[in-house]
Amino acid sequence: MTIGWLIVWLISLGILSLVAIMLWHRLLVLRREVRHLLADRPLTYEVPGPRIVREIHADLKEIARREGEIARQFADEDFSLRAILASMVEGVLIADGNLQIRLVNERLQQMFSLPKSPMDRTVMEVFRNHLVHQVIRQSLNTGEPQSAELQAEIRDGDQFQLKHFQITSVRLRPRELESMNRALVIFHDVSQIRSLEAVRKEFVANVSHELRTPLSIITGYLETLIDGDGDQETNLRFLRTMHKHAERLNLLIEDLLSLSQLESRKISLRFEPIDLSESIHRVLEQLDSRVRESGAGVTVTIPKHLPLIEADAFRIEQALYNLLDNALKHSAKSGAKVSVDACSDATAVVVRICDDGVGIPLSDQPHIFERFYRVHKDRSRDAGGTGLGLSIVKHTVQAHGGSVAVQSSPGAGATFVMSLPVRQS
Ligand code: ADP
Fold it and tell me: pLDDT digit string (tens) for 64-109?
């Protein structure tokens, strides 16, 4: 009886040990699978064994599948975020509650020429600007979006450039993350807009000034004429003066129209083969009475066969007229000496218009092709100049693919050199 029980007990013990060993083995397999899961390695397709082990393994596989899905989603979002940030023309920055930088895009680094990564440094450390600090701090404190315009000297190679930035800071606090306090800051470079605004303001101020002078003279004379106190001779003199100023207004408006058409490239130039020597002679004919009145001497030296250029005859003659008109206008004495010569090589026809007038100081030479820039203000106005002639010349020549330059020193006259490309046959 005792031996029989002993045998049964031993057999049971053996069976239990066998089951324990099998379970131990399955647990080892499961542990290996958990480690695979932690190391992001694929799980074994099937684990044989009792149902409970198979169910745990199936759950592990489901966890692995969900984890993979979340990782893919993260990767997708990360890629999209990086792509959006990299393609933005605005600079983007995210700062935390301590105003420490947590994210920036490349554009921001370029905008401010930041030498090293601004990550994990404070806004003050990176920008050294109270306004940026203040705008972000206020948006974080109040929860309201804050904007400001920032002016900063930005290093560009060896030089510094004044830039204008519009900055907007918005607090980021998603509903599910109440404790998070971060600010998203957008930097928009508005330097070009500001400089265009400045040019426009200056242009409007210049035009108003140019229009006001002749208009106030005309109005003044008209009031005197209306009073009717003057004799016929005085009245006629007044009318002549008014006529002269009305013509000046007319000229100014014509020049403004030409310039605005050339600048906006709205005009389509009527290109045709042109012999520049013919254009020069036509312009000299138009100026003939002026030349004779002033007692000026004009010499023309043009080789017989000048290559043709491809140009708009009207515009080129307008440019030549302006240069020759200036050469006559800015002579210091009556009987000015003006020379026009032309030469060519395989690529360009070069026209030189040279006078012995007052000349142009070196410091003014870089500016004389700008609108309304005058070196000799009174001389120009007295001679009916609009201050737009050389600007028209520059735009015309550039529209033809050529160039214009000045060589001069005060008291020793001026030479304008205009170069236009030869017509390619
Ligand atoms: P303006 O109608 O006043 O002549 P421009 O644009 O033609 O305007 O010329 C700009 C300025 O450049 C002139 O006001 C004048 O001071 C200077 N300038 C142009 N041409 C000459 C020249 N040949 N000699 C001396 N100064 C010149």
Answer: 899 889 999 999 999 998 899 989 999 999 999 999 999 999 999 9
HEC sequence for the chain:
CHHHHHHHHHHHHHHHHHHHHHHHHHHHHHHHHHHHHHCCCCCCCCCCCCHHHHHHHHHHHHHHHHHHHHHHHHHHHHHHHHHHHHHCCCEEEEECCCCEEEEECHHHHHHCCCCCCCCCCEHHHHHCCHHHHHHHHHHHHHCCCEEEEEEEEEEECCEEEEEEEEEEEEEECCCCCCCCCEEEEEEEECHHHHHHHHHHHHHHHHHHHHHHHHHHHHHHHHHHHHHCCCCHHHHHHHHHHHHHHHHHHHHHHHHHHHHHHHHHCCCCCCCEEECHHHHHHHHHHHCHHHHHHHCCEEEEECCCCCCCEEECHHHHHHHHHHHHHHHHHCCCCCCCEEEEEEEECCCEEEEEEEECCCCCCCCCHHHCCCCCCCCCHHHHHHCCCCCCHHHHHHHHHHHCCCEEEEEECCCCCEEEEEEEEECCC
Which of 375, 391, 392, 417 most suits a substitution to test ligand 1, by most atoms within 8 Å of the C-beta? 375
- Measured from CB, residues less than 6 Å from any atom of ligand 1 are 322, 326-327, 330, 355, 357-360, 368, 373-376, 380, 385-391, 414
Protein residue whose Cα sits closest to atom 25 of ligand 1: 359
pLDDT digits (tens, 9 = 90+) for 280-322: 999 999 999 989 988 899 999 999 889 999 999 999 999 999 9
